[in-house]
Every structure is written in structure tokens, then in C-alpha cells.
Amino acid sequence: MRIDAVTLFPGMIDAPLSESIVGRARQEGFLELGFSNPRDFTEDRHRTVDDKPYGGGTGMVMMAEPVYRALKKVGKKGSYVILLTPKGRPFDQKLAQALSKKKHLVFICGHYEGIDERITPLADLELSIGDYVLTGGEPAAVAVIDAVTRLIPGVLRKDDATVNETFTDGLLEAPHYTRPAVWRGKKVPEALVSGNHRLIAEWRRAQAEALTGKARPDLAPERAKPARKRKQILD
Ligand code: ADE
Question: What is the pTM of this model?
């Protein structure tokens, strides 16, 4: 897959996505990540990318033309263009799965108070990573690119690592434990050390339902255990 980011601050995306699994995915060619900086498409001496908002107000607005040119540089026919904004559709695992099947994604990252509204129609999707305001779209792009990249076939060595995980089947994932079996007096749950695969699967399912019912009942209201049963399991 290829991903390009239209950003004034490519380092904010390039650096975190050079580490760990995504860094390896880039080295191994699963992900090609490129950048297009609106500042490189200005024509004035000061390389101006922002200006005061019409109608007044605080902050600066990114000008349409440098963003437009930076986008044209990387966008091709068939590219899927995503504008990151807190006003967008909330990002979730389902969307990550859909995006992981695209050939080319282009992320437009706003900064300052946002981008001139006339850029919005150039995007296929306006996307938010949550109900809070970041300093710009870059940290949001990092989160989305990370979630998408790990779903590209071959990126995770253990293929089944994404099958049983949190959100994939609509539930939060059961807790994990590793050695030692007793740590500072705390034991690993019996079922997990039983060696009985059916028992382990049942325990995990019950934990996932209980956890979802307690922490995120909105995720699967029909499957999450009601409060009473939950109490027996967790307390
Ligand atoms: N830009 C600023 N805040 C954002 C958010 N929550 N999601 C996506 N882009 C943003």
C-alpha cells in the first residue's frame, strides 16, 4: 500500500512511524509512506501557508492554494483522500479494515485553526480520531496509519494476531498473562493454566463479554453480560 500525507510537519508523522512494527513494514515494502508539504508550493518570499480568517476571530487558517497544489502533487486517479478533522466521522476498527484494502491513501493534515473550507470537497472522507482537539491532523494521521498498516496482510508475523483481538468481533479482548504463574502473590487464572483448550476459549469468551458489559456496553449491547452476572465474574 502507498500512503501520502499532505502536511506542514512531515517529521511529526515520519518519526513515530519509523519505529516498531510500522517501521519494519516500511522497510520491508508493505507500506510506502510519502509526504507533500504545502510550504513547498508557495510562491512568496516568506513561503506563507496561512492567513487571517475572513469575518474575524482568533488563530490562522491554512490557505487553500498551497494545500491544493501539495495534494495534486501526490493524488492520482483512484487515490482515496482523507481530511483529518475533529468534525469528521469517528474512526473505528471497521473503517481501519476498509482502509487497509485501498491501494493509495492520501491524508490531509490541517494545522492552526483548520484549512480553508474550499478544500473539503476534494476529500472522499472527513475523519476524526475522537472528541478532542489536537494541535493538528498529524497525530491523528499517525494513529490511523498505524491501525491500517497492521492490517495489511503479512505485516503482523502471526497471522491470527488480528483475528481474536479487541473490536474484531465487537467485544473487548480478554486479559492476557505471561510467566511467572504467580507474580507478587497474584496468580494467573486457573482456566489459562489448565491446558484445556475448550475451557480456555470459554473463559476468554466470558471475560470478553463481562469486560465489554462493564467498560463499553455500547459496543455490543445484545452480547455484553448484564450487570449482575458481571459482578460475579469480576469482583
Ligand atoms: N485534528 C485536530 N483534532 C483532530 C481529531 N480529534 N481527529 C482528527 N483530526 C484532528
Answer: 0.92
Sequence spans of domains, the chain:
2-149, 182-234
Which pLDDT does position 234 carry in this prediction?
Answer: 46
Tell the residue nearest (CA) to atom 4 of ligand 1.
Answer: 86
> How many A from CA of 133 to the centre of ligand 1?
6
What's the sign of the alpha-carbon dihedral 42, 44, 49, 53? negative
Residue nearest to atom 2 of ligand 1 (CA): 134
How much is the pLDDT for 235?
47
Q: What pLDDT sits at residue 159?
A: 58
Which parts of the chain register pLDDT below 50? 230, 233-235
DSSP 100-166: TT-SEEEEEE-BTT-B-GGGGGG-SEEEESSSS--SBSHHHHHHHHHHHHTTSTTSSSSGGGGTSST
Q: Please state, in angstroms and rounded to a whole number, the distance separating the CA atoms of residues 217 and 226.
A: 9
Q: Answer whether 185's CB lies under 8 Å from 58's CB.
A: no
**Inter-CA distances, 79 with 8, 36, 82, 119, 160, Å:** 20, 14, 10, 16, 29
Structure-block grid coordinates of residue 88: 469528521
- With the most atoms of ligand 1 within 8 angstroms of its CB, the residue from 129, 138, 142 to mutate is 129
| Confidence (pLDDT) at 222 | 80
Tell me the C-alpha distance between 152 and 3, whole Å. Answer: 12
CATH class, range 2-149: alpha beta
